[in-house]
What does this fold into?
Amino acid sequence: MSFDPVRDILEINVLLLQNIHTVYHQISLHRCKLFVYQRERWSLDEEQLLQNLLTQFGKEDLKRISQIMISKTQRQVYHRVKSDTKSLIAKIQ
It folds into this structure.
């Protein structure tokens, strides 16, 4: 099985969105997850990623979205995404 970022993003989003009930959160989580993947794809450093996310979502929304992402990211294969998200939250504080 080869690494397929698009498939993986879709799989992650299915997992993340299963228990999210509002359209706003679904769209925000999807967009936030895509931004996290952009870090790897476009070689963004953590500061650039954080600035992109803050521009898109604002500080309070990004905190809330990030907490949801951490709570919904349960599969071992996504541990890196989970730790990246925790690192971002630490910088937001």
Summary: The chain has one domain: 5-92.
